[in-house]
Here is the input.
Amino acid sequence: MQILKAVVKARHSFQRVGFFSHQRCFSAQPHYAPYEDFQDQVLVEGRAKSRAAVLNRPSALNALTSSMAARLKKLYESWEENPDIGFVIMKGSGRAFCSGVDAVNLYHLLNEGKVEECKSLFETLYKFVYLQGTYLKSHVAIMDGITMGCGGGISLPGMFRLVTDKTVFANPETQLGFHPGAGASFYLSRLPGCLGEYLALTGEKLNGVEMIACGLATHYCLNAKLAWIEERLGNLMNDDPTVIESSLAQYSDLVYPDRSSILHKIDTIDKCFSHDTVEEIIGSLVRLLLHRRVGNPCENEAADTYDGWCKTVLRKMKEASPLSLKVTLRSIRDGRFQSLDCCLAREYRMSLSGISQRVSNDFSEGVRARFVDKDFAPKWDPPSLEEVTKDMVESYFYPLSESEPELVLPTALREPYI
Here is the structure.
């Protein structure tokens, strides 16, 4: 019981110093091979005082399926109840940690009319994210490689988030006609300033160093050191969070973002992305682009740098679904004032609205254009921001109908944090 209390106390301590204390286009294209055996999609490694869950669909960049989410949830529940297991590790096989939900599988299920199976995936996934966010034992997520979409949701709520020089983090959902889910409106909204809005609307990538700098990660090491860290963790006979932290710190590197990092433009991001509407955000970016500095060569060089950045950001937002942009901005803004369970419940409603196609077919169209036909020419509906009505956006946030149960989370048993 004393160890359990220490874990809970340390968990909140680490969260306070992590990203919870803070008030480039999508290029990862997995090859979706036929499904392996369900058990093989999430492997288990036994250690002296811990267990490791290994996401094992490397050919699909460990894209998450419904069976994988269900297996993770079952494993984590059993490990939490097992007194012989002190802490849990999650990692991915191959060059990705997790590239997000298996969007192509969802696309085919929707085309076959199997909407209930799609709903089941979101329900199971979001319940697992809540379990992860309220877990009573220390958790180490090794986010080596591609970490996109729900890959963040299944790792970032944990106590320790280890990134490497191979880590690529992004939430590219708006370019797929969807919205950042799996708790994204909770953790993105708590990033410094308006960085969360920027990442959610543009799908911009962060590397491991930048994740450390903005608080998304707790530890950084070179990919070449991972084997040493895993060996060190595997040999631990003590589950004290401070011991786990010191073991991670032993091989961690002190790093700072380089001059080209987007984090050096945080003041400009705040200025542009703090506006109330997507149209105003784009207008602010356009004005910044049109504003040319005159003077010494250094100022001109700086102006050229911001010109290139503005053009890239505007291009990415132009490529995204107009409806998804507006829904996503509202979601991040709402999430800033909500607890994890409220964010997940709202994102569940939004996800069901997105796959129901009652308002728009943008999700299926986005997946078709990027992953199926690969013509990269989605026909968004509505095709422009001006045609996205307030009612369309509001419909994503309405409570579900009586025939459609809301996401039920065990908040009475597992108290959420804010």
In short: The chain has a mean pLDDT of 87.
